[in-house]
Amino acid sequence: MENPPLVCLCRPFSGSGGKNSAVSGVKLAQGAAFRPRTATRRRQDTNLSTYGKLNSEIPFRKERIMSDPFKELAQKYVETKISTPGLKVVTLAQWALESNFGKSALATDHKNFGGLKFRARINENHPYATPVDYEAHDGLDTYCAFASLQDFILGYWEFINNGGIYSGWEDFADDPSGYIAHLHGNGYAGDPKYVSKVMKLVPTINAMLEDLGATDTLADSTPMPRSLFKLAILIGHNKKAQGAFSQPMQISEWKFNQRIFKKIDQLSPQYEIEPRQFFREPSSGYSKEIADAYAKIDAWGPTAILELHFNSATGNPSGTEMLYWPGSAKGKLLADKVREAMLDTLKLPDRGSKARGTGNGSTSLQASQFPTILTEPFFGNTQHDCDRVMTVGDEAIARAYLIGARDAMEDF
Question: What is residue 88's DSSP assignment?
């Protein structure tokens, strides 16, 4: 779904070139109603509660929410052979999100459970879809209408596979969250929380498939075992010397970054990352504390190390930067990837990836045999930076760390 509308008036085409037709020569589907029909559509920038009260705070009750058409779709999908059966569960979750479990007007009237706008590429190999006139708050647009559930299922995969927009999706055949993230990153949806919203519905879809007796689909959709990246997270500073204190957020570096690690730990399975938290224990001096902490990390054998901080300086500086040991190619790559992901999230000024061979932080950067960076995503003493941090939230910051670390470790 590319930029779906919020509230729409759904009007099938009135015939070949009629005044309600956006594309000439399209025949009105037999039996289609001419009167406008209101359909509530999801905003990209809001949570699920705007179109069915399905947010995570409200217990899911499938007997109230899941429509019979959606169960019929699931049963048909179980019976349909596709080249990537490992993506069946997550695509059902995606369609559940897009269609409010089959209750949207596009789903009920046109069997379009994916919010698919009409693109000619969908009919490149077979006439799966016809265009339907759909008026939204931002004007008229053209969506796909499908004659059958089978046409929607096969048409969805034609939509994904043809035209090059989502090129490379096959790389995620055994990586459900990676597949959704790939679509999201290439314009399928604009909601920054799209991936997590889809993934939160996966347990519901699994339960539904169990009720339908579709155990083969569940087995096919179990990802193949993949090697986990081991990501060591060292919380900067210690409980006695907690680092900079953010007045705008009323929290120290040490406490803030423990909060971020909790989110990293929760989100990490989506990124094939195994995180582990380490601490600098108070000791006889700074150098010994660093040496002891990194010795424990090295004994674990991580793929990479993030030492979490936030910045602080006089005045009102702003921006994101990462520090790495000079001459460490993997350290620089890790710094670059994490910085890029954090810039996409916080949208603060880019202060770059900086080699640090002396001065603050250099002892940590040279302490391990594994690629290490010190993170400085924002300035904790600057109101503007802290406002951004509080706006995007802990989960978004944790996700940026995971995305950046994963992208780097894949290229090590």
Answer: H
pLDDT digits (tens, 9 = 90+) for 233-265: 999 999 999 999 999 999 999 999 999 999 999
Q: Where are the beta strands (DSSP E) in 12-152?
A: 37-40, 129-136, 139-146
Looking at residues 360-388, what average pLDDT do you find? 97
Alpha carbon 295 to chain centroid, angstroms: 34
Handedness of CA 40, 89, 149, 153 (dihedral sign): positive
Specify the 3-state DSSP secondary structure of 78: helix
Beta carbons of 106 and 112 less than 8 angstroms apart: yes
Query: In whole angstroms, what is the distance from residue 37 CA to residue 58 CA?
Result: 28
Burial code (b: 16+ CB inside 10 Å, e: under 16) for 331-358 equals bbbbbbbbbbbbbebbebeebebbebee
Q: Cβ of 152: how many Cβ atoms within 10 Å? A: 26
Residue 173: what pLDDT? 87
- Return the beta strands (E) in 224-369 as ranges: 229-235, 245-246, 251-252, 273-279, 304-308, 320-324, 350-355
Instruction: In whole angstroms, give the CA distance from residue 302 to residue 276.
Output: 9
> Which residues have a Cβ under 8 Å from the Cβ of 199 and sit 6 or more positions away?
90, 93, 176, 177, 180, 270
Measure the CA–CA gap between 375 and 383, rounded to whole angstroms.
Answer: 19
The token pair that represents 250 in the structure block: 């009323």
Rounded to whole angstroms, the Cα distance separating 343 from 120 reads 35
- Domains in the chain: ranges and CATH: 7-220 (1.10.530.10), 229-411 (3.40.630.40)
Ramachandran class of 167: left when φ > 0, alpha when ψ lies in -120 to 50, beta otherwise: beta
Nearest alpha carbon to residue 384 among 321, 328, 339, 319: 319
Burial of 108 (0-12, 13-18, 19+ CB in 10 A): middle
The percentage of the chain sitting over the pLDDT mark of 90, rounded to a whole number, equals 61
- Whose tokens are 């990479």? That residue is 304
pLDDT band at 357, cuts 50/70/90? very high
Residue 103 burial (C-beta neighbours within 10 Å; 0-12, 13-18, 19+): middle
